[in-house]
Amino acid sequence: MKITDFHLYLLKRLSYLVLTMFLVSAIVFASTIILPGNAAVLILGRSADENSVAALEKKLGLDQPWYEQYFDWVGGLFTGDAGTSLVRQEPVIDIVVPRLFTSLQLAVFTLLVVMVIGISAGVLSALKRDTIVDRIISGVAYVGVSLPEFVTGTLLILLLAGPVFNVFPASGFVPLSEGIVPYLSHMILPVATLTLLITAYVLRQTRTEIIEVLQSDYVRTARLKGVSRRRVLYKHVLRNGLLPTITVLALNFGWMMGSLVVVEEIFAISGLGRLVVFAIQNRDLPLLQFVVLVIAGAYAFANLGADLLYGYLDPRISYGGEE
Amino acid sequence: MQLEQTQTTSNETVLSIDSLHVEYSTPGSNVRAVRDVSLDVARGETHGIAGESGSGKSTLALAILQYLGDNGSITSGTVQFNGTDLQELSESELRSLRGNDIAHVAQDAKSSLNPSLSVGEQVAETIQAHQDVSRSEAHQQAIEMLREVDIPDPEYNADQYPHELSGGQQQRVLIAMALSCSPELLILDEPTTGLDVTTQSKIVELIQDLKDEYETTIVLITHNLEIIAQITDRVSIMYAGELMEQGDVYSIFDDPSNPYTQGLLAATPEIGSDKAPTAIPGQIPDLTDLDDGCTFADRCAFATEECRTGSIAMETVADDHETRCRRWEAAVEDPIQPKRGTYDRASAGGELLSATGLRKIFDEPSTVGTLFEDTSFERFFDLEPPVKAVNDVDITVRESETVGLVGESGSGKSTLGRTLLSLLEPTEGTVTFRGDDVGEFDSSEMREFYSECQIVFQNPHSSLNPRKTIGQIIERPLRMFTDADAEARTNRVVELLEQVDLGPEYVRRYPHELSGGEKQRVAIARAFAPNPSFIVLDEPVSALDVSVQANILDLLSDLRAEYGTTYLLISHDLSVISAICDRIMIMYLGEIVESGRRDDIFEPPYHPYTRALLSSIPNLDPHKESSPILLEGDVPSMRNTPNGCSFHTRCPQKIGSVCEESCPEVEPTGEGESSEHGIACHLDEDEMSTAIEGLHNDADG
Amino acid sequence: MSVETESYRNPSISTRLGTFAREFLTNPVAASGAFIVLSAILVSVFGPYLVTDPTVTDPASRFAAPSFLDPSSSFLLGADQYGRDILARVIVGGRSTILLGVSASALGLALGVPIGLLTGYLGGKVDEVVMRLMDALMSFPSLLLGLLILTTLSSSIWNAILAVGIAYFPRIARVVRSSTISVKNEEYVKAAEARGESTVSIIFREILPNVTSAIIVEGTIRVGFAMLVGSSLSFLGLGAQPPAPDWGYMVAQARVTVYQSPYFLLWPSLALAYTVTGFNLLGDGLRDILDPQTRSD
Fold this sequence. Notes:
By secondary structure, chain A is mainly alpha-helical.
């Protein structure tokens, strides 16, 4: 097979990904091991006696030099061994994988809703620039970015899952295998909470970008050659104006992974976010390290995906591949 | 081919504009961009609209098409096309008119093409918008149109995206798009601006050919008076939103009857004449706040009190020749003439700065440590060869002389200038200053070198720090390089400002309060502050209007005379270079192909590239037609410079394999007496001197 | 002719401020943002002296716990289950939330601005290495990075400031770096290099004054974000510690009893949304006014 520029680009991006993940793992490791606060003390509490601390240190391998600990850990990751949960006493991977699946469903679902609402509202806002429609959309967006997820989530529960309108279940997650209606009804409130938070960013980015394209010379060219409005909108405005939105979506995907911590806590969904809180509360370091690594990794992969998609859709970034 | 200004004009009027006014509303004020413009364009006519920036010429074009954006509107007057009042048309009627009956080619081809659609599709969609054809038919027609505008391999290039084509090809695509529905009227807005002169002459040639073929009526908007002189039948001269003069091209250029037109012509530099470009004093008025009377009165040598009252009407000078001037008879009586032969040749002293075997290569591959660089992968797999921006250049600059360095975009001329000043580190070769190797300088010698050698950049808008006052900007080098105390520095700042014709009140102003020409003066004052012996002028006038350009050139000459400063003037414009340089070097793809005294360059023998460059500059006199030598293709990439002579791929006088294989050295011409003139070419002197068959050369006459 | 010698060394600051103030007041976004921010800051600075100590419970209701008091003349916004005045708690809670937002943003600027300036101006390998590290840090959602840091350190408002500041500085560094890169290519920087100015002098004299607007805008908007992340941390039980009445912590408490008394949830939420909106509006307004791109030349 011929090595095309695209392969090289892919190789380059993948090597950056490896590098980023290496740095990420180092940061995770450093922040839990090297920073002040001995892990064993952290686990046992400040009042623990020295002997039990020493015993736990030995059990956890904390008496080893830090670099050996690190390489043990990373080495383990490569062989599919991310350690054993201190609290649950089962392999960390077995705990994380099903919860990752749950969280991803929430995230992907939200991303789809955000794309539909954010992009269409952004385009509408740009086309109706400086009209009442634009002002209302911008106003709603302002409120959206200013309300933290724990407020919107709680308010949504209060409004739609409680005394006012009891329409949706207030908590829990039901897999799709239990039927589409329960699945969706459990999904709606957490997805709505995340959507409210993130849509505003996609919307504002889309609006800015579309306005810029509307003022571009090539849109003027298209209009001055008598092309229909519809075609100007789809082929010239949207095609160019929506490209940067891909990057913003990937950025928000990572951000959403962080918001999951709060949202899953509010809606009592056992996903990665709640696992983070659990690991923190129980000082379960091996679990915490791995969950955080997975979340950061998800973001890095989302970014890679966005870059590749962007490159595929934007001819200006050419890898010169002949398809 | 012969550029003939055939009078195919009939009496039938295609476009008729009657006392048109256009305003743009901006917060707080209205910009009266076009005022009282009336003009008729007859079928088959090529009508030129000339004017500097701010003249309203592009706005006029968009007003014809009823496309003025959200904040622009026609406040009074009419635009009629074949008798139809275009303001009466509905949006959908306008849509079927645009691109089909009236086509518009916008300036700046690069940004006017959709970056994410193939050029073929962009041409095809115009055809589909106006004709009932299938998608594949439209595509076929698009390919034919691309062939018509001489896009090489149109089947292949139709599938390319705009960024994959050169600037000249992008312009051709726009023209193909405009002509695809055989419009009756074609409006070309600055179709050659931003293109190199050799590319420009090819586009002009193309427009001429297509006009004959499609029998299109053309409105050509440009600031370039030479192009107007060469290809239009009738001319409108615009200034500050008004029509100053209008008429037959010969009457306008032979008997300019408006002081502004006379001033513009006097300001335009011409090669091979003893004319010294002469500036128009002052600057364009603020279009939001216009006084009564003539808008040009403040800059006009003929202005009297009567010019500052009421509104000035068009007056008839002759048959088909009108001017907006109450004093036109006085202006015709004693027209503004460019200064003649005021230019004194400086007597050059000893060697000041020289370079031998200078090379500057970017992206030099290295074996280690490039992992983090974005280019590392391309490097590693050898996909991207390095850029040879300066390739084995020898150059000597002597005290008190002005050396011109000419080249088109991508010739490496700016890189050479910066490498000479140690702003870029040479990859190979040495630069010596007053006989000492600059590369060996210690830090105090380097400081001395920096104070002796200054640079003035192209873009006046970016060369001054917007957060500093003019006083602070000029004072900085004084603080760095002199021992003067605060008071002495202040006095010197005021003195320097005075020398660049700016008053002491400028000391406290910020750059954004200054016009482009004024900013460039400040940049020049800053360069002169430490009393340098050598200044690199990197395209110092190319961002300025022609009337301001002449002014800056004057100023540079005056300062040189006063301080005896040595200049290296870098420009793409041979006319500018010829106006003030003693010696000239021609650069192509990182190499110097010809160098010599000013007259050596403009007279045979010529390097074939120099010959092409000279022939490409259109003549300002409409009676003398230009016959440019059209070079094939585009300038090759600096990453893949051709073997042998770098010009052989485009050379009309290529002899054969010797040109492809061996790289010619710069050889002196003549028998010693003119030994300063050197040409790097395999041709013998006769071949470089005599006219090429089928082409004649009138650059020196 | 006489020129006031010193006048251009210290450019007439009063006239520049005057222009800025005029533009500021006529920009509805900036003016309303400034009004909100100022009112929030004033209330949280001086308010606590005007209300009863929020940690003090109402003696009448302390034995009837859990007891919520509806709004009344003595408790304008009602009282919580311990009989504590909600108005007082909201006002005092503003102190720690706004303090966290402003300090964390300041810390982010203190770390991010020098890094952004240096990497942006120097470029090359230094830039590549530092930026890869910033990318890695940015792979962590800021809330998660904050959590991670707070777990290692102990929970306190100061550690929360540290955590949020660290979580945000890579983003600030990126913004400053990209502004620096665009300024670096301006010809006045090239001109400074051509007269042999030192790197320090170029960064401080030529670049910094021209990226200040970007820094101010970014710093302002980051305050709002930092308040959100900070109160999320408090909501999760890290960050500000009880009984300090942080808004996030108040919402967490109120959630438990939301069905009995929605007011308790409503007021801190509104206060938070109000203040964050203020900083966002102020930041956007400042961008309109200061951004050289939208400024006519």
